[in-house]
Design goal:
The complex is a heterodimer of chains A (181) and B (356). With 181 residues, chain A is α/β, with parallel strands linked by helices. Helix content of chain A is 36%, strand content 25%. By secondary structure, chain B is of the alpha/beta class. In chain B, the strands form three sheets. Chain B has a seven-stranded mixed sheet with strand order 3-2-4-5-7-6-12, with helices on both faces. Chain B has a five-stranded mixed sheet with strand order 9-11-10-13-14, with helices on both faces. The chains are: A alpha/beta (181), B alpha/beta (356).
């Protein structure tokens, strides 16, 4: 099994940390993992993206042109990466602020209103965990218990009191994701 | 510190590996995309773990001269920078090579020339392998292509540097520095308490004075020294070549690539083979000494070679020298901080080698 994922959105949405939690969880399942971020000026207030690869085999290129799954969190990223999903692949996007929706019919398109859900949870910082929950519902390549341990590892101890809230966000994400085509 | 599995960036992995390898001192100055090396070391406070000194110098020039001083005392000393900073260090590096001192220099390469870009590139190959500073000298150059190798090559670089009394460079790039992968870290090694016989640690009555210099005004003596250096480089070429073959056994076409490009080429080979093109990869691990004989041997087997580098084509010259006209050798690579992708490598192999 090899799952090649791009997660893309605004800097500050938790794109990179979502990828990191996935990579940690992959290691806990004895997978090979790679996490390749965009870095530099594009992160500061602009777009941020990370390529995460989870595989049972040695990973070749950590940098890719096409992906099994794209997790898209803003319009710019949708414009850039919709065409980068492999035929038969999966696109998950947050509808917030999207004016031009995905158009491809050769891929599975899912919508998750994670911005809205995070607002309901009264914690905008759990946004990326709502998204991750949605992803895991569609692509159960990682076990939820490992994701929660991964979350614990990537969060500094002073934030561990927020773990229950994040777990709730994960399960809400699983509930609200919906298929569009 | 026991053997340990971690998820780390290449820059963090090399910093942690440096502490565990028993490095005595690190001197550096921040620059993207390698600042995590210095940041990690500062946060980790290795002086509390092993007594290792970590210092942010006032400039790259100061840092490399601190390396020169520390190395002269026989210590395991390291510095790191990225392309423009490595250019600043070149004067110090040629002095260190001329004084025959071991040390470890990390270059996390970004695009150039000048300040260029902060994104990954491999355009410092000439500088790393052909000298860099003035005078007839070479560095030992190791090219990691994974986070694991960023960590593993620290000890290898020190071993080779001390064996040959020669500076060693780890030539990485922004992609390997910034990406996270699994890495097995080795247990903590104790810092050496003994200095090598040549180190300038204060003269004792039972021996002659040790002198460390790169200056000899007597041309006859200087020529003898140059011959000695060349003998040393020849010995490295005989004994220290390291490389990895990937699907070479039945290959009809050979890709030659190091570092990040070698990872991209592994994917390209997978794509090419799905189309029935039998491609293989030879990945030089040591860029100096270069795997000349191994590439020459492959020239008897394959119909053509493509050197894939994130540059305008630098290593391709060494590949051509090795092949010596036996089969066509072409270059493919993106520049300016753009990482080549596997699909365009396959396309280039088809148009430049197979179709050509």
């Amino acid at each position: 099994m090899t799952e090649e994922i791009i997660i893309a959105g605004f800097g500050g949405q938790g794109v990179l940390s979502m990828g990191k939690i996935m990579a940690y969880s992959g290691i806990m399942q004895d997978m090979e993992v790679s996490w390749m971020p965009s870095y530099g000026p594009e992160m500061r207030g602009g777009t941020a993206n990370v390529t995460v690869i989870l595989s049972d085999e040695r990973i070749s290129s950590p940098i890719l042109r096409t992906f099994d799954t794209a997790v898209i969190l803003n319009q710019q990223s949708l414009d850039k990466f919709e065409k980068a999903v492999k035929p038969g692949g999966t696109l998950i996007y947050d509808g917030n602020g999207i004016t031009r929706h995905p158009e491809r019919d050769d891929i599975a398109v899912y919508r998750i209103d994670a911005t809205e859900e995070a607002a309901k949870l009264e914690s905008s910082k759990t946004f990326n965990m709502v998204v991750l929950g949605g992803y895991l519902k569609i692509k159960p390549v990682l076990k939820l218990e490992n994701v929660i341990t991964g979350l614990k590892k990537s969060l500094p101890e002073r934030y561990h009191h927020l773990l229950p809230m994040n777990e709730k966000a994960l399960s809400r994400g699983m509930e609200i994701i919906k298929k569009l085509n | 510190m026991e053997k340990e599995l971690r998820l780390m960036k290449g820059n963090e992995a090399i910093a942690e590996a440096a502490i565990r390898a028993g490095t005595d001192g690190y001197f550096g100055y921040p620059i993207t995309p390698q600042s995590e090396v210095l940041e990690y070391l500062m946060a980790e406070k290795p002086h509390e773990r092993t007594g290792m000194v970590v210092l942010q110098a006032e400039s790259e020039v100061a840092a490399i001269n601190m390396v020169y001083g520390g190395a002269g005392c026989g210590k395991k000393i390291m510095t790191s920078s990225s392309s423009p900073g490595i250019s600043l260090k070149q004067e110090g590096i040629t002095y260190i090579a001329g004084a025959e001192l071991p040390c470890l220099i990390l270059n996390v390469v970004r695009g150039g020339p000048g300040l260029g870009t902060i994104q990954p590139a491999q355009s410092d190959y000439f500088q790393a392998t052909k000298g860099g500073g003035h005078g007839d000298y070479h560095l030992i150059v190791l090219a990691p292509s994974s986070v694991q190798e960023m960590a593993d090559f620290v000890e290898l670089a020190y071993d080779l540097a001390f064996k040959y009394r020669n500076p060693a460079m780890i030539l990485s790039d922004g992609a390997i520095g910034q990406m996270m992968e699994k890495v097995w870290l080795k247990p903590q090694k104790e810092r050496s308490k003994e200095a090598p016989a040549w180190a300038t640690t204060g003269k004792t009555p039972d021996r002659e004075r040790n002198i460390i210099t790169s200056l000899d005004l007597d041309s006859n003596k200087q020529e003898q020294f140059n011959i000695k250096l060349q003998d040393k480089y020849r010995e490295m070429k005989e004994k220290e070549v390291r490389y990895e073959e990937f699907q070479c056994d039945d290959a009809e076409y050979l890709l030659v690539a190091y570092g990040t490009s070698a990872r991209v080429c592994q994917k390209a080979i997978q794509l090419a083979r799905e189309e029935g093109i039998k491609a293989g990869l030879l990945r030089p691990i040591t860029l100096f000494p270069f795997p000349t004989k191994e590439i020459r041997r492959m020239a008897d087997q394959v119909k053509g070679m493509l050197s894939v580098e994130m540059s305008a084509g630098q290593m391709v010259e060494d590949v051509r020298l090795a092949v010596n006209g036996k089969v066509p050798v072409e270059h493919f690579g993106r520049m300016g901080g753009i990482v080549t992708n596997a699909e365009e490598v396959v396309e280039s192999l088809k148009t430049k080698i197979i179709g050509g």
